[in-house]
Amino acid sequence: MATLQKIRNRGVFIGIIIGGALFAFIAGDALKSGGSLLTNSRNEMAEIAGESVNIRDFQNRFNHNIEVAKMMSGQSSIPSEQMDRLREQTWQQMVQEMVMNVEYEELGISVTSDELFDMVQGRNIDPTIRQMFQGPDGTFNKDQVVATLQQLINAPKGTPQKNYWLNIENAMTTQRTLTKYNSLIQKGLYMPDAMVKDLATKGSKKVDINYIVKNYNLIPDSTITVSDAEIKEYYNEHKDLFEQTESRRIDYVPFLVEPSTEDYKATEQWLAELKADFAAETNNVQFVELNADTDFNPFYFKKEDITNADLAEFAFSGNKGDVTDVYSEGDSYKLAKINEVKMLPDSVKARHILIRPVNGDYASAQAKADSLKALLDKGARFDDLAKANSDDQGSAVNGGDLGWFTQGKMVLPFSEAAFDSKRNEIKVVLTQFGAHVLQVTNKGKAVKKVQLAVVDRKVEASNKTIQAAYAKARTFAGNNLSKDAFLKAVSEQNLQRRTANLRRDTKNIPGLENSRELVRAAYQTDDMESVLMNNDQSAVFEFGDKFVVAVLSDIKEEGFALVNDVASTIRREIRKEKKAEQMIAEFNKNSQGAQSLLSVAQKENLEVKNATGVSFSSFQIPGAGIEPNVISTAALLEKGKISAPIEGNQGVYMVLVTNETTDEVTDATVEAFKARLEQGYQYRTNYQAFQALRDNANVVDKRYKFY
């Protein structure tokens, strides 16, 4: 399977595959055992299009995807963050599969074996296959595809390589099926020529306007009365505006675990006792790696580069091997030792020839670099060898020239070799990129620089301190198990109460490390009278450096918000409408017989403002903001005519068109406009068609019970 291994080593990323159908719970089991219905209910993690999804089926798919991810990356384990993303990908794939398969079956959409053959080794090669079997010159190698398939045919069933290939085929099949469906929907879109021409004509017209505006804040809110009946009527007439997703709100009190005075003293004392050993140590880098919280920093500092004034003075007045007394910086205590003192430039100019190792063979790469160095030592031209041999194509075209660079800009071995080299000296240096033939061609002025070995230790809470914080949280929870007692105690004890709005898929609560457990607890109960309990039936949750006690304070079901929950929003809208009515009446009164917009502005004590280049397709009016009603009125208004009052977002407007220009609308411009519109609608189709099907499938997500 060497070929597949080479493909994987190229880093080609194939998305996690939608493969294998989901199994609903088996009714026969329910008949055999009276307890299996209850078991299936407990194990149900979702319901999609009326079908139950069992957690075991999801976990099998998830485990399969983990193995695929490991095989693609060459890793033996998957980091936790990637696991979370992989779990979410698996869920989205299962939803898409179950929703779309119904549509595919009804419409008769599928991918035949002949189509798959055509995608893999026929005339219409899939981009995935083309990328995998692309030669160094960019051409597709069909012979390599055939050879790989022959290997797979002879491979035992269930081998990782065969499973890997089946995943690739499933991915291509899934994508091709979805493409067919999207094409079917897109071909059903129609843009009437008359409508396109009308929109193009309106968009071709641009106007310059003068306008006046009475902002709503000119009328105090206190002067506008809104009744409960008006709020209810508005709610009923605009109910669609108040659709809400499911959410829950919690109130919680964090008990912070902070290092005590004793913890600070203990950390300082630990470093003080380490000083003698540090001073006697000859391998300072190893000592730092073994004892410090922070890795050894190989950087060489000028005096002005060291922000700690006392440390800078010590570093440039002491001798190599000297060690400071214990000092504090931030939340850490430190010891610093002068490791090296050198005269070094701030920057160097260099060139290099990079030889990348083939299949990790660094010995061969170094051997080639050594041979190039030998040629240079005999008088060969560096730039000629760089152009012919360097794998760093960015610098090879310039004879390997890297220009000027400062300390730390290059990887450490390369940087150290460059700054320690004499001018025109040639060295071979190994880095993670390969073997470099390095030559420093120029150097800045050398100045005194110091390299420091620093042993630091962050002050952390001791077990005694942690236990004290936990005891405080446990005592608070034990004395205040009800919501009323919780809120009363928070107020009386002047504790910090925080609020968090949660969705089922909320991974972390801001400020609380790895707090998914609290989210799950909030969704596993409808009890709003008691404190929340964790998996161990304790009221104290632990998240990083905090212990937390929380209560469920609000539940919002998916659907429409209750009128009382949105009353304040409705009250603002009704108040704005009433202000607009008053302002429109005042405008109408003061604009009767007016010969100019200026005369209306003078009566209203308003400023006449102007904006240029306003068209039907404008997003906003310069100086006024997003005002679609004003834009559409201005775009269609006759030049020289004062508009009627216009109710806008920020206030009530009156507009006068002072100038207008219209671009010529030809058949070509209409067609181009139509093409842009159709393309925009087609882009939206892919997402919106699936979203409509998903909404219709009534997906009930119960993952919170398990993750």
From TrEMBL:
Superkingdom, natural source: Bacteria
**PpiC domain: residues covered:** 345-442
The way it spans or sits in the membrane comes to: Single-pass type II membrane protein
Please name the InterPro entries in this protein's record: PPIase_dom_sf (IPR046357), PPIase_PpiC (IPR000297), PPIase_PpiC_CS (IPR023058), PpiD_chaperone (IPR052029), Trigger_fact/SurA_dom_sf (IPR027304)
**Entry keyword set:** Cell inner membrane, Cell membrane, Chaperone, Isomerase, Membrane, Rotamase, Transmembrane, Transmembrane helix
Q: Which residues form a coiled coil?
A: none
Segments passing through the bilayer: 12-31
Location of this chain's protein in the cell: Cell inner membrane
Query: Which Pfam families would you find in this protein's record?
Result: Rotamase_3, SurA_N_2
Q: What GO annotations for molecular function exist for this entry? A: isomerase activity
In which family does this protein belong, per the annotation? Belongs to the PpiD chaperone family.
Q: Under which name does UniProt file this protein?
A: Periplasmic chaperone PpiD
